[in-house]
UniProtKB/TrEMBL annotation, chains A, B:
PANTHER family: HTH-TYPE TRANSCRIPTIONAL REPRESSOR CYTR, LACI-RELATED TRANSCRIPTIONAL REPRESSOR. One of its GO terms (molecular function) is DNA-binding transcription factor activity. Keywords: DNA-binding, Repressor, Transcription, Transcription regulation. Residues 14-68 form the HTH lacI-type domain. It holds the Pfam family Peripla_BP_3. SMART domains: HTH_LACI. This is LacI family transcriptional regulator.
Length: 353, 353
DNA sequence: ATGGCTGTTGTAATCGATTACATTCCGGCT
DNA sequence: AGCCGGAATGTAATCGATTACAACAGCCAT
């Protein structure tokens, strides 16, 4: 009847039936030999394996997924694909997913054209068996989707209030480490370049910075808290604000390495020297941090490990195909990975005022 | 019979039959209303659309792909997922692919565990309708796969000899621009930090650099050509080699920005100043280049555009489901995108010897 | 020897969407 | 009136793998 593909079969692409014929067994036996070898006799198993090798059989995943009512893939929602901070995390996820035979689909949540619709699709949809979300500021329709949403794990960022599983780092503690480092060097006037205000990471790091200052009895002048948005460009803008101040903080904690680099870059253009004139601490420990001039003192996040952990958690959730809460009781729970202060050349004792 | 999923249907996930029932038409009409609206009457079409909205129907892609003998996705083979140079390209690909309703699968060809097997799978396999390869050094079994391989487009790197379609930049010309810039500033001793020797980009850029030097009648001292591998770390090693020279080139063209940054970073540690003591030119124009200290003079590659172009080319290839050569005659052909010299602070006239 | 048991294999239903072919309907033409 | 052609729709086969159930063989115990 329907043969628009006269060549397709002829050209190759053997199916399970071809293998069965070649091995002299039924398709059921082939299927079992490949996915549950214990169920078939050694003789049949060998025959099937041989037939597979001879025919060059590759399983058709669409058929398998249809039958199993699954999709064979996980979706990763990332705010900015081109941001190197995320690519290391992606790499971690990819490794685990590929070991588990799962495809990793990457979707940029901040893509211009019709992003909203597309994201909603991924959420509500049957297009993924699991979801890893790296973006804590998804559109509102996030949870409106429907009850049969795939398991979700948040990584790095998360949505407050939702009791989703997540893999994060101790952002508050990282900020405390950063500020205490500056204090330990003798700084008394400390500033902070913040991320976007609605971002959960911004809030946690800000809280940590505030706490550390308060604990040391330091005055947290509101003019020393610069609004920015994690990008290089916003770090540059913060540097301009810093330059315009009457009384300048001698130590600056930036909520991202990108901002710290932008900040230092702009200061350099204006002849201000780091760390001689001002000390700078970043957050993330991106690749370039170690090799920036000066090398950036920063808070290291285990980015690759974050991705791996999130993927492992998601797999556990997917395997125990129970409801979220049940799986949780079963063992999976949110993980907070440690951060680490990496001292490099961008910090020193404050200049003698 | 087989009902391991008693809840699945009940829980929701309407199928095309449910929609048909709700709309009072047959499944054939639903299918046509959704994918070939011109074939059904306005009345039926509206009824179907209404039923879709009511039931919250989402098409099952596995079923569609099975029937259409396709996979609904394209695979991107990238050498190092965590390398920011590639993530911008990925972002370009992702945008085009998502517009076309295709999933983008990302696979890291340099992943530790069993990478070879996995890659071969992607190639020979029915796991993708198309393939974009960003790695010019794939394992040898690349073309041995079989005749029913999906369409392939190379981007950035490519395999010499294979007459595959590709999207590249004019690497040779970029190198000429870089070296001529140094020559124009008055440099007479020019060095080159190279990429890995088996890499096609290394070879093209090296050729361009050599040609430009020869054209200006400059001596290309072999000791001024440093072996490296595009990474930050290898740029640092190159800097050490440079420091160890008796007679040092006053201008250095690095085959990647990452190496240029590593190079400058290491020189800085040894008190050598850029551009006062030595001028440095990079290649790529990665994000940090503009904000490095000093800002890096470099050759800009349109990374996002490279990704978009490759994706568009692949789509054209996939649509015209003809053989590679036929599609080529039909219009698609390899594209070479232009590069651009971006002059910044890392280059200046040579010091008075 | 008969019944029960385990281990292995085959038959055929099933997942959900697409589409070839058949059917129906209706207006226009001879 | 009868026939033709085109538009709209329905019926059912199909894609390829999985697996419930049935069938059967071999073995032990009663």
């Amino acid at each position: 009847m329907d043969d628009r593909f006269p060549e397709a079969r002829a050209a190759g692409n053997p199916n399970i039936g071809d293998v069965a014929r070649a091995a002299g067994v039924s398709t059921a036996t082939v299927s079992r030999a490949l996915s549950q070898p214990d169920l078939v006799s050694a003789k049949a198993r060998d025959a099937v394996l041989k037939a597979v090798a001879e025919t060059g059989y590759k399983m058709n995943l669409a058929a398998r997924n249809l039958r199993l009512r699954q999709t064979g893939g996980i979706v990763v929602l990332v705010p900015h694909l081109s941001n190197p901070f995320f690519s290391a995390i992606l790499s971690g996820i990819a490794g685990i997913a590929s070991q588990a035979g799962l495809n990793m689909l990457v979707a940029d949540t901040r893509e211009a054209a019709g992003a909203d619709r597309r994201i909603a699709g991924y959420l509500h949809n049957n297009s993924a068996d699991g979801l890893i979300v790296l973006d804590g500021n998804l559109p509102d329709n996030f949870d409106g989707g429907g009850r049969n949403r795939p398991p979700v794990v948040f990584a790095c960022e998360w949505v407050e209030g939702h009791d989703q599983l997540s893999v994060t780092v101790d952002n508050r503690h990282g900020a405390v480490l950063a500020v205490n480092h500056l204090i330990g060097l003798g700084h008394r006037r400390i500033g902070h370049v913040m991320g976007p205000p609605d971002n959960i990471l911004t809030q946690r790091r800000l809280a940590g910075a505030r706490d550390a200052m308060a604990a040391a009895g330091l005055n947290a002048d509101p003019r020393w808290f610069f609004n920015a948005n994690f990008t290089l460009a916003s770090g540059i803008a913060a540097a301009r604000s810093w330059l315009a101040l009457d009384e300048r903080p001698s130590g600056i904690f930036c909520s991202s390495d990108a901002m710290a680099c932008g900040f230092m870059s702009e200061l350099n253009r204006h002849g201000v020297r780091v760390p001689d004139d001002v000390s700078v601490v970043g957050f993330d420990d991106i690749d370039i941090a170690e090799h920036f001039i000066p090398a950036l003192t920063t808070i290291r996040q285990p980015r690759h490990r974050i991705g791996e952990t999130a993927a492992e958690m998601l797999l556990a959730l997917m395997r125990g195909d129970a409801t979220k809460s049940a799986a949780r009781d079963g063992g999976e729970k949110s993980t907070v990975l440690p951060v680490e202060l990496i001292v490099r050349g961008s910090t020193a004792a404050p200049p003698i005022a």
